[in-house]
Structures
1.
Amino acid sequence: MTRLNINGRNQTVDVDPSTPVLWTLRDALGMTGTKFGCGIAACGACTVHVDGQATRSCVTPISAVEGRRIETIEHVTAGADRVGRAVHEAWVRHDVAQCGYCQSGQIMGATAFLKSLPRGKVPDAAEIDAAMAGHICRCGTYARIRAAIADAARALA
Amino acid sequence: MIDHALTAALPRALQHLAQRQAAADEDTATPAAALPRRSFLKLGGLGGLALGLGLQTADVQAQATAGGSASGGLKPIEQPASFVQIQPDGQVIVTINRLEFGQGVETGLALILAEELDADWSRVSSRLGGNDAAYADPRYGLQMTGGSTATAHSYSQYRELGARARAMLLAAAAARWQVDVAQLRTDAGQVLGPGGRRAGYGALAEAAAALPVPTQVTLKDPKDFRLIGRATHRLDARAKSSGRQDFGIDVKRPGQLTAVVARPPVFGGRPATVDDTAAKAVRGVRAVLRIPLPGGGEGVAVLADGYWPAKTARDALQIGWDSAGREAVDSTRQLAQYRALAEQPGPRAFEADVSALTTAPHRIDAEFVFPYLAHAPMEPLNCTVQLDADGAQVWTGTQFAGVDAMAAARTLGLKPEQVRVHVQMAGGGFGRRGVPSSDFVVLACEVAKAARAAGVSAPVRTLWSREDDIRGGHYRPLHLHRARIGFDAQGRVLAWDHALVGQSIVGGTMFAGMIKNGIDPTATEGLRDPYPLPMRLTVHHPQVNVPVLWWRSVGSTHTAYVMETLIDEIARTTKQDPVAYRLALFGSGHRRHREALQLAVERSGYGQRQLPAGRAWGVAVHESFNTVVAWVVEASLRDGRPVLHKATAGVHCNLAVNPLSIEAQIQGAAIMGLSMCLEGSAITLKDGVVEQSNFGDYPVARITDAPEFAVHIVPSAEPPTGIGEPGLPPLAPALANAIAALTGKTPRALPFALG
């Protein structure tokens, strides 16, 4: 039994402690907003926040996050998270998604990035690129991702 | 995927296939009764909806069959009841006869129907239809998503569906108010009548559904369009920006197990020995089963409570593989063989007198190499199969629901009508989910069948790892082009002798009927035209033990590159501006090419402004899937890597149904085209084994590679053409032409090796 804090709720899961957070969320808890893309932390589709840090859940065993705060896309875009909400709204406004499969991870990456900036700071394209370089979008939505992140930052400023 | 020019040949091939299937069914005489059509449609519909237009589907269908209704002459694809549901509160749900995998069809076709329905767009949503006859492609006769055909093939269909539903709502209002229908009009989801009477569509839907379906309807004059042509946001934008959008991988049936399959390292191999002791000891593992693989060979499936135990157990399998009798492909050797083959006589796609090659003042001898490419959609392939007492249900993101249903039926010993394919939202595909052999559906059916034989009757989701995807074959074929061109000082081409070597995509598949004179047109599409060139084209299709498949924009992934870099090189050699040279070759014809190119040139500032030092312009234009796209790019080199700074597109796709969606597709296709050029973008084989396995060794373009984009659309009122693929082909040659301007040398092998 492993005790996890997910989106503010304490939960106990009965899976092998080596199971990655990704598969615990998806298969054991039925939370499918977090996506499987590569399994080797190379694409960013599985990004969650652990104590506020963007983390690749596909290579993070649950044994490593016991007692830590895990947040997923379902929670971050639901409304209470000011930055997550702003990113979600900017994503909709810019019609970013195409197939949409990587976007949970992109939004989690973007939200963690904007939270890491000093309040009021609007990142330039190069800063956004550097922050988002770990996320693959095979549909090629990068131009709109850039625009949406800058827009969310302006809305938060 | 499938070129527009082939749409005439394709229905015949599909018809042939269906006939073969029917004959096979006679032979097997499956005892289970087919689902009656009515229950099929009901099952395919949304549950729990209040009465509305859509819920009358089955009845309308039954009436039509019985000939008791005015809709008797309408085909299933023309029946609004299968496509439009209007709820009492006025919500309109449009069913889409395609796969949505990013291209925006779920929004675009809904928009087209809503236009003629005169719906309130803020109350429109959409859903995906399955393999029912109603959701067949109007031209292919089966549900298919590919060849950038969705909007082009279903534009009139969805307009008429919307117009029919609107006419029924008008008739219902006329009856209710006892007025002539001519006194009524509609506006954004309401019928308006004399004396200020108004009724929402929701209030009229039930009465409307009971009325005959009109066969003849008058469509709007395009100048009255309110929705078509307007930049419209995606209907799925919110769900896809909050983790709420479900994809095929998210399907969860009660009691469902997850399977992963260990596959032979060499295509077509089989296990000689299997030790599954350690695998079976993994907690959560339910079964380890040997299964036949689609395309030959055998694999070992591990079924478990979830992906992680299944994958862990697969890693623990000890398998001795037998590759005897299977060709062990080696990329280096293969290239040498292709090179030799290019010099051999072979079937000719075009004939021309090439004797002027020896006397021409200028000569280019060029060889181009394009590697195997994996599609690598972000959502790994998956397919969930549930075997029921009277048939099977399949949940998957597929481009070929109709073909897959037949393949699943063959695999499971069922009739096609006993298989229901629930088309799921897919996380990309780019051709990989449109497989003539239905490989990932057949694989999942084999797993479910073996599980049932072993006493495991649970629904099974067969899930691919990224490594399975990258190593799983079905690649864009490796191609070698060899060109010998003679031209004069004015750039007039006197002779062009061209050879093309590459596996046929359709050879040996249900689409083999497309091969004419030994030549697969999906390999040669995009060569020569639109330029008036005296080209002789010889084609070779070797057999190689590597499964191949169409990849976004198919033949044009390589032919556009060859054509557009060579045309540029002739222009540069003869000291002509590459844009002016192309325009001169187009002459007074090829209006759409000219307009697309001129728009891109004009908006990019090409020829009007100086670029910073170290940057160069590159231009290319290409038609694919009836759409012409021109790219004008600004590029430079940094540490031997191309840097694409800015890319400006001119797009001629006739009527722009949704400019926002077109912009997205053009940008996305360009990123995929850019990806082809970047270091590492190649699938190679050694000793028969694919050398790449994941995004680490098969990198794709990232945000750091993405340029600033500007996409411009040529205004037009002609019926819309394809948009999912045409943005891709001209991007790589435009970038290559910029590099040639910088270095004096055109890269002739992809990915670029610029040193």
2.
Amino acid sequence: MASGCAELSSDLTCGRMSSSRISPIRWLNEALKAAAYRVQSYFGLLGRVLASAVTRPFYWRDLAQQMDTIGVASLGIVALTGLFTGMVLALQSSVEMKQFGATIYIGRLVGASAVRELGPVLTALMVTGRAGSGMAAQLGSMRITEQIDALNTLGVDPVRKLVTPRFLAALVMLPVLTVIMDVIAIGGGMLIAVVKLDLTATLYLRSVYQSLADTGFILRYIPIDVFGGLLKPLVFGGIMALTSCYYGMTTRGGTEGVGRATTQAVVSSSILILASDYFLTQLLIALLIE
Amino acid sequence: MSQAMPSPGQNGPVVMLHDVRLTYGSHVVLDEIGFSVRRGETMCVLGGSGVGKSTILKLILHLEEPDSGHVEVLGHDIETAGRAEIFEARQRMGMVFQGSALFDSLSIFDNVGFPLFEHTELSLEEISGRVREALSFVDLDYRRVESLLPSELSGGMKKRVAIARAIVHRPEILLFDEPTSGLDPITTRTIDNLIVKLRRELHVSSIVVTHDTRSACRIANRIALLQSGRIIFIGTPAEMLASDDEYVREYLE
């Protein structure tokens, strides 16, 4: 094996394993080494992205293009997800709450659920399915058709040119999309509350505000729930973009490899988003609420 | 940006490989590889499939690192150079990939002008002039092709656009990976003529990786023949054709 692989392209293929017949212990050893190498490469990529985000040259045009691809082009799917999530939340909870005459609290339930959890997580998952898969497929195709090698040979750092704009665009656009999703979800809940449960819009919205105000404020005016709901998509956006780009940049094995990389990107991003959601929630509760 | 890389003398070698060895696991890809390419010289690396020909180009571009040995490019040891220096060295080289590797989302104009947009402060008008000059050099009618996408071109035209992109920033070294594979004999001859034209008119040093003996004899000043990751012959085309070596004879036949 090459002693040190010069570029990410070759870097990440260094952890590959021989498929020839080997003993189980050696297989396990090789598998662990390969996994450790992948983790190292993943964080190595993160380091290079962060370094190139603060040093010249900057690719502003690519950044704007990616913000359009990740943000503007995802608006429709995010809006629909928000609308139906809010409506379903209100509808489902009304069944239980009606029994106790507590339908006036539907706004609290919809508001808290959307802003704290469903908004950030569903937005991240939807954008992963739409834009993350696209990133992995596009970079994967570029990898197998030697376009990434071509960038290298033309003296252009592929991480700086391809990965950093996608990463930064996701960091900016995910919180924006989450806010839109939250507002539309609350709106969807309001639709059900007004049309089906005969609540007034003012009562519903006051209930939403109460749920956000209950957990307290940060910097005097920002509800903690809203702060948490904006911090999470920032992290999720980074995870989605980095994971998708990682799998795209390390694609091997022709068109089949592109398909595999795309699937792995979506699955891994989704799992990482859900897992990090738990830890972020724990952290936010410990730091801001308790 | 780090310090500018030094240039070798007018007649000194622009690329040197010293006793290079590269392995993937237990598989030896390259072993004891050593040769140099002088300024304005065309060196062909010949050999069958999977003998490590293209890997030599990757070593020169520092897309791979050798296990042992040294690679010197334009008078600088590429192994000890930092990332910035490597990117700077690459800006003085041009590479033509086997599959052309044109950026499929960019027009031919943007593909050919890419190195100029990236690394120079030239105006759009100046870049336009350089792009048209490069396209004309490779015998393409820029009026007809510059607004097209790579997917709208034939294989031979893509190769010529790839050459135009590689020469537009006036590199000192050109690397070709199987430039004539998959092309018909007439287009192959056109590409061969272009490589010779590049040497004669632009005095560019070229390293051409190919398995096409006829093509290599037409374009090369010297030929290196690889077998199982080792150079078993290095010399002029005439010396190769006159060689008594069993493998050389077998390869030629």
